[in-house]
Design goal:
Elements lengths: L6 E6 L4 H12 L3 E7 L8 H4 L11 E2 L3 H7 L2 E4 L6 H10 L3 E4 L9 H8 L6 H4 L3 E2 L2 H8 L4 E3 L3 H15 L9 E6 L15 H4 L4 E2 L8 H13 L6 E6 L6 E8 L7 H11 L6 E3 L8 H4 L5 E8 L4 E8 L7 H11 L16
Parallel strand pairs: 1-2, 1-4, 2-3, 4-5, 5-7, 6-7, 8-10, 12-13
Antiparallel strand pairs: 8-11, 9-10, 11-14, 13-14
Helix pairs in contact: 3-4, 8-10
């Protein structure tokens, strides 16, 4: 029998990297009980068989995906699936009264035509998709509180948007000059059979860019939220890179200031005010710049700010763990807000260092 005082939760897509982070977080959460794990390719296997390090804590088996069973057993469902699957499952789960948090791209866009053009999936679920809230709490907390359906942000957009949001919201930069130069660890590629570039022999001791020239799928997601923040359409130069480490994203943002007279301490004051009610964003003191290791295994985003008076440019550096604040941790943070709980509940606040 389950614990009557805890909210029953399920994960569909439990065997991927996002799913296994969620398993760990939900086991540690004082008000949630993990009651369902779903998946197709791993159905029938115990989660401890797929991930032996979990065997002593979790006895659940992965079940084939049955929306009726999930809806009857769970009050909350995390969908940790490849793009193009969640939008088919969410309507029935919502009908059955579940809160749904989707970790894929299916519900991140307010304009479904944008989704279709970038992800190649034709959608007819506009009515339900329009109820989805973009799950970046630091920007949309007031909407997340009342939501039933959350489109959790991508990892690159999370690091990038938290870094640039105060600049756009306050009109401090010439938006057309903004450049986001971002680096990710290899776990961002997921757990599917490895692409050649993800093999240790290929990725180790190497460092390269990909999705260059506005071709990466996170570009339109970043642009949509940046446009919302700025109050006008914003195009963003975004270049992702693969770094030979497992976890972490570092985004370095450059833009020309509207007022070249502002100094670093002015910007730090603006950033600290912008994030004063954001327990998961740490604006670093003057002259300190973040490193991915600080955020590793936590739900934190560390932000450092600098101004180059010679060029009139601001430089913002943002660091997160791509699987935590960039994925599973942020989803749990959103659920905490949806349930009216403290948004830090059940989420790790310090990395194991070094």
């Amino acid at each position: 029998m389950g614990d009557a005082n805890k909210i029953p939760v399920g994960i569909v897509g439990a065997s991927g990297y996002g799913g296994v982070q969620l398993v760990r977080l939900l086991l540690d959460h004082p008000l949630l009980e993990l009651v369902y794990l779903g998946g197709e390719s791993t159905a029938g296997k115990a989660i401890g068989e797929i991930y032996p390090h979990l065997g002593h804590r979790v006895s659940l088996k992965v079940e084939s995906v049955d929306l009726e069973v999930i809806g009857d057993r769970c009050q909350v469902v995390f969908l940790s699936l490849p793009n193009g699957l969640a939008y088919k499952m969410a309507p029935r789960l919502l009908e059955k009264g579940c809160k749904v948090l989707d970790l894929s791209a299916d519900f991140r866009f307010s304009n479904l035509e944008t989704y279709t053009s970038w992800y190649g999936v034709d959608r007819q679920d506009g009515a339900i998709a329009s109820t989805a809230v973009y799950g970046l709490p630091e920007l949309y907390r007031d909407r997340i509180v009342d939501a039933q359906l959350i489109g959790c942000p991508g990892c690159y957009p999370t690091a990038s948007l938290l870094g640039i949001a105060p600049l756009l919201k306050q009109g401090l930069i010439l938006s057309e000059t903004a450049i986001i130069d971002a680096k990710s660890g290899t776990s961002g590629g997921g757990r599917q059979p490895p692409k050649t570039g993800m093999l240790l022999a290929e990725a180790d001791n190497s460092f390269g860019a990909y999705g260059i020239g506005g071709r990466h799928r996170h570009t339109p997601e970043i642009e949509e939220i940046c446009s919302d923040l700025a109050g006008h359409e914003v195009l963003m130069q975004f270049t992702p890179h693969l770094v030979p480490m497992v976890r972490g994203i570092l985004a370095t943002i450059y833009a020309t200031m509207r007022d070249p007279g502002l100094v670093r301490d002015d910007l730090l004051t603006i950033y600290q005010a912008f994030y004063r009610n954001a327990p998961w964003v740490q604006v670093l003191p003057s002259g300190i710049y973040p490193q991915t290791k600080w955020a590793c295994h936590t739900n934190l985003c560390y932000i450092g700010v600098e101004i180059d008076p010679r060029t009139g440019r601001v430089i913002v550096i943002s660091a997160i763990d791509n699987l935590m604040k960039g994925q599973a941790g942020q989803a749990v943070q959103c659920l905490n807000i949806m349930m009216g709980w403290d948004e830090t509940l059940g989420l790790p606040q310090l990395s194991f260092y070094p």
